[in-house]
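Feature request, filed as a ticket because there's no other form

It would be nice if the structure record came with a short human-readable summary line next to the tokens. Right now we just get the raw output. Example of a typical job, pasted below so the devs can see what we mean:
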Amino acid sequence: MKESKSGSLYRIVRFHHAVEILNGSLHFSHPSKWDDPYETRVKHSRGYAMFAQCWGKKSMSDAMWRIYSPDHLGVRIKTTRDKLKSVLTNFVRENKGHKRRLADVKYEKTPAVRKKTREIVEGLNAGWQPTLAADLLFHKREAFDHEQEVRALLYCPDIDKSQKDVGLKVPVDGHHLIDSIYLDPRAPEPLAEALSNYFKGVLNRPGFEGGSNI
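Raw output as currently delivered:
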């Protein structure tokens, strides 16, 4: 498994999500939609206002393909920290009162995660602090340290509470954000060729990285 040393970030998504990004919309999920129950282990009054995305620093990981592309139809998109940070910055600039964070996840032993959680809860009980609430999403158990995760977080205080069920769509220049698209190397050859031709036509650029470089 390779880890990026150039500030590159990677994310495995379904084909239609990659198309959605290229069409100008970047989806942020509410953490309650994630699989790990530790992500929402603390309930607080403004939990509905947090939306996030998970990226990784490793360019290649067989485990990640198996988790996020179980049907072999996923694609890996590549961007940079600077580009993703720019998307977040533009969003909060245009939405007064909103906040953002882009940072590495810290992996610790379960007792340390629980201790940190207790400290955060004590701080939140003493008074609402968006920064503390955000901290909850940047500490994970070391069982997940193979992910080498980087998270993009948006705090949207005036959003409707029902929005957490559908997520948040952030406007983006997808052609600028995405540097490359890599097809699942396990995808059937005829399908891989069809997807590759589609992306090459949409992006109007030569070449994709790896097994099917777009």
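Something like this underneath would help us a lot:
Residues 1-5, 206-214 have pLDDT under 50 and may be disordered.
Helices lie at 15-22, 62-68, 81-94, 110-126, 130-135, 174-177, 189-203.
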